[in-house]
Amino acid sequence: MSLRNLFGTLRRSREKRQDNDETFKEARKEILNNLREVHRSVKLLPLTSLTNDQAAEYNIRCHDLRLRTDGRSSATAQTYFKPWTLEKLEQFPLDLDDPDTKKSIRTNEACFADLDEERSRESTGELDPERDDSGLLLSSVFVCEYTWHARRTTGVEHTLDDLSGWFGRSFNNTIIKERYMNMAMFTDPGSDPLASPPLSFEDAWYPNQPEGQELPHINLIVTHEGVCDNNILRSELLVLVGVMRTRLGRVELQDHVVAPVLLTSCTNNLKARILIAYFDGKELVVLKSPLHDFYTPGARETNFRLFLLYMCSQAVGDTKALLRPMVKEEHATD
């Protein structure tokens, strides 16, 4: 090949690469605009929760998520979190020889015993809503099980977050911006922002990656200081979208177009659920498990382990790939 032909080939290759870069940037900009529109519409909702049909009116597609112990993922959506199997979790039993772990477990068991006794005294068989703060207890135990309690291992990692490759981080502008947190915490869009049960952010983790290889996935826990049904809460949606917008706004993640979120959502009346969400460019896709009961010792033994399988999920999937073609439109500003 002559030098002239070689230089011509290199020039065309460079121009094609530049065109691809510009196409990606335009598509990514469109994704961020669409995500902002979903955020704005949810923020203005006059409802505190939505059915699946109501959510669809706001470009939110909800799917049922059946929590399972075999590590398999739902076939109805993209996979960005690969849960542990129960067999893998059982390879790392609690280290009851560790004094701090043993003390923490006894404290948690005593708290649950007090709640069980209190509930037995109520005529309804349920906790008094006026004094029920069991959602906070649930989230606290999840944090203990995941980040504090030592596990028997042969390696240097001794807690589930370390063993599963997640790094704990306090809530800051790398996880969710403060103004997005405030939107979610004040869940009623009416004149009285405290009319709905308050939401609190408990803890968050991101994949523990080498420097310069940051992934957009986030794994977090929130508590709703009230009870809810199986409908998705407006506040949960605001958490999910707020995290996504924050993550995709980071310079370090400018090559990514998807910011997957795994949310453990605890409520009073000793119930919790798992939400897994991502934005496909047009719609917010949410996989939502039913509310799981932590009322009895048997239910707690089963469901704490089940939820930990998902909290220990491996961050997977191509978050740099466009999930659908983008069409440029005009959008209102934030």
What can you see in these coordinates?
- The C terminus is likely disordered.
- The strands form three sheets. Strands 2, 4, 5, 6, 8, 9, 10 and 11 form an eight-stranded mixed beta sheet that branches. Strands 1-7 form a two-stranded antiparallel ribbon.
- The radius of gyration is 22 Å and the shape is globular.
- It starts with a helix and ends in a 19-residue tail after the last strand.
- A hairpin with a 3-residue loop joins strand 8 and strand 9.
- The chain has one domain.
- Helix 1 packs antiparallel against helix 8 and helix 7 runs antiparallel to helix 8.
- 39% of the residues lie in helices and 17% in strands.
- The protein is an alpha+beta fold.
Give keywords.
two-stranded antiparallel ribbon, alpha+beta
Percentage of residues assigned to helices: 25-40%
Shape: globular
Q: What's the total helix number?
A: 9
The H/E string reads: HEHEEHHHHEHEEEHEEEEHE
**Nearest-angstrom radius of gyration?**
22 Å
Strand content: 15-25%
Overall pLDDT metric:
87
Count of the domains: 1
**Number of E-type strands:** 12
Secondary structure class reads alpha+beta
Characterize the main sheet: 8 strands, mixed
First-to-last CA distance: 54 Å
Q: Which residues form runs of ≥5 with pLDDT under 50?
A: 191-195, 328-333
Summarize the structure.
The chain is of the alpha+beta class and 334 residues long. It contains nine helices and twelve strands.
